[in-house]
């Protein structure tokens, strides 16, 4: 099928994980994304070499994760010739997306006003650490700082008795906030369609955290305290974690207790509890005892037994999976949530989380080598071979030597 953003042209001038992941989502949805890099390249290319993220048995994957389905151009925009190419790219684009700091944008003349003067119908999308206003608007930010630490996510996901905050997983804030920025870009495209005028959209890693932390922040805004999810007394036996007899943890989440009380009791082998605790009040007064009964009953079952019984009763649950199990999860495989890499057998990367008319994103292109498509893109912009060769010779345009 033709994906919704087919025909939309995106110029990405960004680095690391957050904003490149937003552009990757737009590419997954069909956009033609050109990734513009300095001649030295996106530092994300070195993340494995710098041991910030381990390789996978010698295989690199992080740059691929956030840069698949893009074409790559390497350009020195600080030269007059490079600036001319850049402005032609801006005229070509429907969307310009960046995470450059304000001082860099001022230096390179890539502020929204500069870009909209070149292309008045442009969607200018900016990703920030903390936001476009406030005391830290000029400061940088990575997801480990702006999302994980400052946004409070680390605190609520760290056990109360832990000696230090839990370390975040790679790109844990970059990828979801990138998806939020991609959504904002799509809204911006609708604005241009309706008004004929360009628009500036902004999203920050800290803002991604505040969205994620909505229930916690709402509670704290009302009480001035933290919401306690542990240590506050017994919980409903239907919304709790248990362990099977063969050691697998399982999460029950059946919020509609009236509906699921009888099926859950039947599934775990406690049918006598159905009539003994017929209403919410009687169950709530005995949550502690009921939790103990469920814990003992589930602890006597194997994973396979538990799985079969709860499925038969149409209960809502899941075992706690490890990543290698998620890769092979039938729901993940059958719904196409992981895309096969076009040139690296075995590598699977998550596609942007949406399907259109039952079609899921696919990897059309591997992440580009530095300047891999420089010549191709400039030809599309109207440059002839002699002009392109001169730009390469002068060090303005980066392009791999012909194969």
TrEMBL record:
Gene3D superfamilies in the record: Crotonobetainyl-coa:carnitine coa-transferase, domain 1, formyl-coa transferase, domain 3
Keyword Transferase: yes
GO molecular function terms attached to this record: transferase activity
Official protein name in the record: Putative acyl-CoA transferase/carnitine dehydratase
UniProt keyword list: Transferase
SUPFAM superfamilies given in the database record: CoA-transferase family III (CaiB/BaiF)
Keyword Transferase appears in the UniProt entry: yes
PANTHER family, per the entry: E-CINNAMOYL-COA:R-PHENYLLACTATE COA TRANSFERASE LARGE SUBUNIT (PTHR48228:SF2), SUCCINYL-COA--D-CITRAMALATE COA-TRANSFERASE (PTHR48228)
């Amino acid at each position: 099928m033709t994906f919704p953003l087919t025909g939309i042209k995106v110029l990405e001038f960004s680095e690391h994980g957050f904003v490149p992941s937003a552009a990757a989502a737009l590419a997954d949805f069909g956009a033609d994304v050109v990734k513009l890099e300095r001649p030295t390249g996106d530092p994300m290319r070195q993340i494995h070499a710098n041991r910030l993220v381990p390789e996978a048995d010698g295989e690199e994957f992080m740059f691929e994760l956030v840069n698949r389905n893009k074409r790559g151009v390497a350009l020195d925009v600080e030269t007059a010739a490079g600036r001319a190419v850049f402005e032609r790219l801006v005229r070509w684009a429907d969307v310009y997306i960046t995470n450059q700091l304000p001082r860099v944008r001022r230096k390179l003349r890539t502020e929204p006003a500069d870009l909209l003067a070149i292309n008045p119908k442009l969607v200018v999308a900016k990703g920030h650490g903390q936001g476009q206003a406030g005391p830290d608007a000029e400061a940088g930010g990575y997801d480990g700082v702006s999302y994980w630490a400052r946004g409070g996510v680390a605190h609520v996901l760290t056990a109360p008795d832990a000696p230090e905050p839990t370390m975040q997983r790679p790109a844990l804030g970059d990828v979801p906030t990138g998806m939020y920025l991609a959504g904002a870009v799509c809204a911006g495209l609708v604005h241009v369609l309706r008004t004929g005028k360009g628009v500036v959209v902004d999203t920050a890693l800290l803002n991604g955290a505040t969205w994620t932390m909505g229930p916690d922040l709402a509670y704290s805004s009302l009480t001035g305290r933290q919401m306690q999810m542990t240590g506050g007394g017994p919980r409903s036996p239907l919304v709790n974690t248990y362990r099977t007899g063969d050691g697998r943890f399982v999460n029950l989440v059946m919020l509609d207790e009236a509906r699921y009380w009888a099926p859950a009791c039947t599934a775990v082998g406690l049918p006598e509890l159905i009539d003994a605790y017929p209403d919410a009040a009687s169950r709530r007064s005995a949550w502690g005892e009921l939790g103990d009964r469920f814990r003992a009953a589930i602890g006597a079952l194997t994973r396979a037994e538990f799985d079969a019984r709860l499925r038969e009763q149409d209960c809502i649950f899941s075992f706690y999976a490890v990543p290698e199990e998620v890769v092979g999860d039938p729901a993940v495989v059958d719904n196409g949530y992981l895309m096969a890499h076009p040139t690296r057998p075995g590598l699977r990367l998550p596609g942007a989380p949406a399907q259109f008319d039952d079609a899921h994103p696919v990897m059309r292109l591997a992440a580009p080598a530095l300047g891999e498509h420089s010549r191709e893109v400039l030809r599309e912009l109207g440059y002839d071979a002699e002009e392109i060769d001169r730009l390469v010779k002068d060090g303005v345009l980066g392009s791999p030597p012909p194969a």
